[in-house]
Design brief:
five-stranded mixed β-sheet; binds molybdenum atom; eight-stranded mixed β-sheet; binds ligand MTE; alpha+beta; 318 residues; globular
Length: 318
């Protein structure tokens, strides 16, 4: 007998990793199904606005209790140059972006290179809410409740070798879907990198959601990095490749303007950007005027991360 009746399927045969997948699809179908008469573009926007709730999300001890940035601001004031250079472009032009199925190739200096199929490796029980400050190099900041999980344990599965000193990340390159990539605004695909101890640090997460819902496309769906003690541009979006390297990997903004953006890009009020001060940030917290607050060393995460840079000249390694 080839097709089992539901009563014959033991619960052990239904793998837990499939639950997340099934739910993601189901919720999207529900959202889309209510709007069958409208145009495809419209219902994708609608589906994104409705949001796909993520379940089994636990709280994290790493969260800040500062006032949250309204979801509206966090999802309509974005940097995602693949969809345009304007802050509203990603939410306007990113809605049709197809993020299913999605996989990440893991390669380079490791014993077990392979592929991460998003639907299989994102386990509902590992999802945590991490309320982090994110400070953009352009001197605005937000407080966003991310949903994700630490990157370190994921990386360890691939058994990085002793030569793996850095981890390089790459965004999807698909000019058909990402109109910004049709122009040489940046050297596509967008790439970023971390030193391996930074990548393994418990504050560094892979995010798959925000405000309890699946990531909207403009925030880097279906999976993006969040490194809260570094300027926002290190938090690379829509990742398709992770590689372990011996040499410091190239990073997009460093290639674009090496005197303005270094490899480390730690939030540092004492090192100005050549064109503006980094001492003050505008906090987008829902108030009519954004509050101007003093930027903290390592974005306020010094207690957890300062030791990673002991003995380094942070003016040189900016
Ligand atoms: N692929 C890719 N990732 C990216 C960017 C980008 O243009 N392309 N912009 C970065 C910058 S400058 C910032 S401040 C953050 C913004 O993340 P948010 O839109 O979710 O707030 O994404 C970062 N990740
Ligand atoms: Mo940024």
């Amino acid at each position: 007998m080839l097709i089992k009746r539901p009563s014959e399927i033991k619960s052990s045969e239904i793998t837990p990793e499939r639950v997340w997948h099934a739910r993601r699809r189901f919720m999207r179908d529900v959202a889309a199904g209510t709007l069958v008469a409208t145009t495809p573009t419209l219902f994708r926007v609608q589906a994104a606005a409705a949001g796909v709730r993520l379940e089994n999300v636990t709280e994290s001890k790493f969260s800040t209790d500062e006032k949250l940035t309204p979801r509206e601001d966090a999802t309509t004031y974005n940097n995602f140059y693949e969809f345009g250079t304007g802050k509203k472009d990603p939410s306007r032009y990113g809605q049709a972006f197809e993020t299913e199925p999605w996989s990440i190739e893991v390669t380079g200096e490791c014993e077990k290179p392979g592929t991460l199929d998003l639907e299989e490796f994102v386990q509902p029980h590992q999802l945590q809410e991490r309320i982090y400050r994110l400070r953009c190099v352009e001197a605005w900041s937000m407080v966003i409740p991310w949903v994700g999980f630490p990157l370190g344990p994921v990386l360890k599965r691939f058994q990085p070798t002793s030569r793996a000193k850095y981890v390089a990340f790459r965004t999807l390159h698909d000019p058909e879907q990402m109109p910004g990539q049709r122009r040489p605004v940046l050297d596509w695909p967008y790439v970023e990198g971390l030193r391996i101890d930074e990548a393994m640090h418990p504050l560094t997460i892979f995010a798959v959601g925000l405000y309890g819902e699946e990531l909207p496309n403009q925030n880097g769906a279906p999976i993006r990095l969040v490194v809260p003690w570094k300027y926002g541009f290190k938090s690379i979006k829509s990742i398709v490749r992770v590689s372990f390297t011996e040499q410091e990997p190239p990073t997009t903004w460093n290639k674009a303007a090496p005197n303005e953006y270094g490899f480390y890009s730690n939030v540092n009020p004492n090192v100005d950007h050549p064109r503006w001060s980094q001492r003050i940030e505008k906090r987008l917290d829902g108030g009519f005027f954004p509050q101007r607050i003093e930027t903290q060393m390592f974005n306020g995460y010094a207690d957890q991360v300062a030791h990673l840079y002991e003995g380094m000249d942070l003016r040189k390694h900016f």
